[in-house]
Specification:
The structure is a homodimer of 293-residue chains.
Chain A (H helix, E strand, L loop, with lengths): L2 H26 L5 H10 L4 E2 H8 L3 H13 L3 E5 L7 E5 L1 H23 L3 H19 L3 E5 L5 H17 L22 E8 L2 E9 L6 E8 L8 H15 L4 E6 L4 H9 L3 E3 L10 E6 L1
Parallel strand pairs in A: 7-8
Antiparallel strand pairs in A: 1-3, 2-3, 4-5, 5-6, 6-7, 8-10, 9-10
Helix pairs in contact in A: 1-5, 2-4
The structure holds a DNA duplex (30 and 30 nucleotides).
Chain lengths: 293, 293
DNA sequence: CCATGTACCTGACTTTAGTCAGGCAATGCC
DNA sequence: GGCATTGCCTGACTAAAGTCAGGTACATGG
């Protein structure tokens, strides 16, 4: 490996630890141990198993338990027995906890603003572009795409998130029952595939492809969690789905979507998809795309 | 400020804290408190006043004293009274201390290598380029250029470093006495200027410009400390020196240098300097550059 | 139903980090 | 020379971070 590359990276590491790391510590300093803030942050929006929290933060079981207790006493999180295993427990933020995280985000933004303030507009844009590249490439290691049974709990969870997001995004809401039906076995081999992307082991994106014999492949239920947008997860997923289609002999792939999903449409176009006329009459769609493989 | 820019930066901060920050902590974990490793690192190669160490690391006087004592007990640093002020003390690494730092660097490099290992060559190059941009722009805030008396201790220190580097770089060594003489007042207003660049308050680069009336401006003693190369310090210095020359009415600027100083030559050419014939007969030079302002 | 293992909790630690109030020697300034 | 100041050290703290050895309730596989 090129030693100049290593040198550049070491300097990057020093600078970033100094600038960004210090900032990170500062803004998390909110009258409670820093580790507690980090844990609150790491809990995220849904239910999290305590074991997974521990693993992600690298904490001792006893220590984690105490931190969690402290957050509970502050009224920022709730801990309940896991629905799937009564030994395990899951944590979730209370309303106050969510507000506190919003506040942490705000402080973090202030810090970012202060760092950017000394730069002119071009430099800010340059820094943001470089930061995006670094973020994307450093995250790569922790992203993995895997073939999943579309009925597995994690696949179901992703699809659920997807539906909820559509419901929130579309003016007229989203009714899965009104959509064209897709049976589970249409998204499992040999008739299709369903992929889940995990980031640090947590599911963050999903997508399915139907592979009807003699017809174009058809993409379904592409979803990327808001927390990982910008990391190139969508592109990675699309590549994997297209590869599955190609391997199955498909030469053409189609999908329906909605112009309200702007980021998704941009990505499809960027990846060579072109708009085509309605080919399936899906009621929630107002845009149809296709691409030759 | 564009909120998407802030969002990108926040994601960058999260990722980088996770990947790089964790790594940074890990590799410094060498059986002694992390703060001690950081201090050893921060001491650098020469003598450092303890007050300056404290300031850079943001430590309490008592705490700093204890950490230093611990490093002394380990045989990694020596502390001696300051030659200029018998109240103050200076710290320097022992041979063992230097070896320990080399080891820390090695571990840090291993970490960097592990991070880069998952990427192909193009991606590695892309990451390195982006890392360089981030490093340069984040460091900007802490770099300041100031006009200095060429006889001030810090200016002298920079020039000394410059001479030592030339001595080490040139096959035939460097003898200041054999070089064309430059009197201090030729590098001070109104006949010239001498600039020092500081990074986090420490001098890291210098450069002078002679402004003889009716003749082209002449750049002298451009030096950038190895530790900050790649941060764009040279370019910043060059810009400032050229601005001084322009303000003094010069329309043309010249300099002599040596092809052994490859990085410097590259920078001059990148900044629009073109090679010209020998115009001053400087014995240590084998290359002469000029540029219209 | 029992043996074994898992998930989390609790109490009792140690180490690291960081603060604060003096204290002593050297310095700078009348 | 006296006096405030500076630079560092020491002792005596507190809080945070992290570790370790049980303990309890539940899960799983025979």
């Amino acid at each position: 490996m090129d030693p100049r590359l290593i040198a550049a990276f070491r300097q990057f590491q020093r600078t970033v630890t100094r600038e960004v790391g210090a900032l990170h510590g500062d803004f998390l300093d909110r009258g409670r141990p820093l580790a507690a803030s980090r844990m609150l942050w790491e809990i995220g929006d849904g239910d999290v198993e305590i074991a997974s929290l521990r693993a992600r933060l690298g904490l001792d079981s006893g220590y984690a338990s105490r931190l969690l207790r402290a957050l509970e006493d502050e009224g920022l999180v709730e801990v309940a027995p896991s629905p799937t295993d009564a030994r395990a427990r899951v944590a979730r933020r209370t309303r106050a906890g969510c507000e506190e995280v919003v506040e942490l985000d705000r402080l973090s933004d202030d810090g970012a603003r202060a760092l950017l303030a000394g730069l002119d507009e071009n430099e800010q844009a340059e820094l943001a572009a470089a930061a995006r590249i670094v973020t994307r490439l450093l995250s790569r290691r922790h992203l993995e795409v895997s073939l999943e049974d579309p009925d597995s709990p994690e696949a179901q969870w992703c699809v659920q998130q997807y539906f909820e997001e559509l419901q929130a995004t579309f003016d007229a809401g989203y009714d899965p029952a009104a959509a064209l039906p897709t049976a589970s076995d249409e998204l499992a081999p040999p008739h299709g595939a369903f992929l889940v992307v995990r980031y640090h082991g947590q599911p963050v994106a999903c997508g399915g492809v139907k592979l009807p014999e003699g017809e174009p492949a058809f993409l379904k239920r592409m979803w990327v969690a808001p927390s990982v947008r910008g990391l190139g997860v969508g592109g990675m997923l699309l590549d994997s789905l297209e590869a599955r289609a190609r391997d199955a002999g498909a030469t053409f792939v189609r999908l329906d979507t909605n112009s309200a999903l702007e980021a998704a449409c941009r990505m499809y176009e960027h990846r060579g998809y072109v708009q085509v006329p309605d080919f399936n009459g899906e009621v929630h769609a107002n845009r149809w795309y296709a691409k030759s493989l």
